[in-house]
């Protein structure tokens, strides 16, 4: 194994990059060439990049560790902990430990910390890296950074409802009946084509910014440009959808979903606080979950964050870790 250092993503190339993601244990959309390239363009264009490429003796690409200099003496994984829900070393499944050993050995003399955000609990980066690092004289810490509530989907909506506790099933059906009574004009709509998403993204951004204190600060001009480019690029691959609960006076709830493998991921949201009494977010989310079941998806991933409304659907929380190599 040898480790080569690149200073830009283009030196690896989209084909080789995405080919490795496809062979990895974690096929996260946040590790894809498109997402990573757009993230660098938006948030790290003026930062030094270190793309560490692990190759075998035949010159075949085995692993990628994309890092950027976040501060003097600190390199963080490309993708950032604020917009990317799952990140990790990109390596062929089953080759993670040998790739990590090569990476660790290549940096034993470097006086720099590596920080990896949003690493899933089952990753060898969490389970095996601490022991590998100790053998190289390095220290690794892995602490829970956040949790992703994840729901295994049954084969029918009726089966899902039957699986809920009596309390949550009763509350969900009660809220749906209340919406039908108090806002009979409400309709669920979904757009997935790039032009359709671009046409309605302004409505999503408006509801997102209004829905909770701090979201307007998060969705600044730079973040909006990133959202527009990333969602359009994913829509071109039929991997993004924009959902609305529409009324005659305009939408009152909205979600962005991202799809990969047999998973639907709930990426971001917004709602009209003036209509909060109707629980528009929960009702729209029920339609999104039902659609995923109808289309035969196996998993609904609420992604990072443990907001109370997510747990009304009874998912199981799965931790993601911040891994530091010192």
What does this structure look like?
With 326 residues, this protein is an alpha+beta fold. It has 2 domains: 2-147, 3-Layer(aba) Sandwich (Aminopeptidase), CATH 3.40.630; 154-297, Aminopeptidase. 37% of the residues lie in helices and 29% in strands. It is built from 12 helices and 13 strands. Strands 1, 2, 3, 4, 5, 6, 7, 8, 9, 10, 11, 12 and 13 form a 13-stranded mixed β-sheet that branches. α2 packs antiparallel against α10 (221-235). The protein is elongated, with a radius of gyration of 21 Å. The protein starts with a strand and ends with a strand.
List the uncertain runs: none
CATH topology of the largest domain: Aminopeptidase
How does the major sheet shape up?
A: 13 strands, mixed
Q: Give the number of helices.
A: 12
**Number of structural domains:** 2
- Helix/strand-derived category reads alpha+beta
Write the element-wise H/E pattern from the N-terminal end onward.
EHHEEEEHEHHEHHEHHHEEEHEHE
Number of strands: 13
Return the CATH class of the largest domain: Alpha Beta
Mean of all residue-level pLDDT scores: 95
Report how far the terminal alpha carbons are from each other.
Answer: 22 Å
In CATH terms, what is the architecture of the largest domain? 3-Layer(aba) Sandwich
| Rg estimate, integer Å | 21 Å
> What is the share of helical residues?
25-40%
Morphology: elongated
> What is the percentage of strand-forming residues?
25-35%
